[in-house]
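Annotated sample (chain length 195).
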Amino acid sequence: MRVNEIFYSIQGEGYNTGKAAVFIRLSGCNLKCPFCDTDFSDYKEMTEYDIVDTVCGLSVGCHFVVITGGEPTIQDCTYLIDLLHQNGYYVAMETNGTRKPPFNVDWLTVSPKASYVGAVGNLRVQHCNEIKVVADGEILVNAYLSIQAEHYYLQPCDTGNEEKNKEIINDCVEFIKENPKWKLSLQTQKILNVR
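Output written by the structure step:
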């Protein structure tokens, strides 16, 4: 598998914010979102066994793994998830929803980017545990109201422009006040300056 990095930290976003997690960041993505803050083009070839060995070495006492990217569904993660389960891990995955996720993942977060795919109709995932929409001032949240989820999050994007960021945060707060099933997700890893 093409692995960008594996590291141990806390989940900074969405439902599992604050929870200790080992992150497996896979390389490659099928989208080119202008606000992406991850360099996932670099990678190291690893077998599923090598990945699990690395995870086990990092995660003494922690049994929560997040597979992310890039776009993790570009690679077949089914066997990797099976091996992680065999070693006692609960496995979450974050996807943009444009490709079918593995059937055996425990928790699925869809962070859709339909504005950069061309149409909401290109989303392959319509049911998930959690939807997390990154609001950048361009994405219309209403485009994702048909996706069925247990939890709905709106996350302000850090555009690097302080005035734009204030506008986005205000828009998020107003949207949530009008649509109370949605909650605010902040990138706490950036606030705390942790990986």
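Annotation: The beta strands are 2-10, 20-26, 44-45, 64-68, 90-95, 107-110, 127-135, 148-156, 182-184.
Annotation: The chain has one domain: 2-192.
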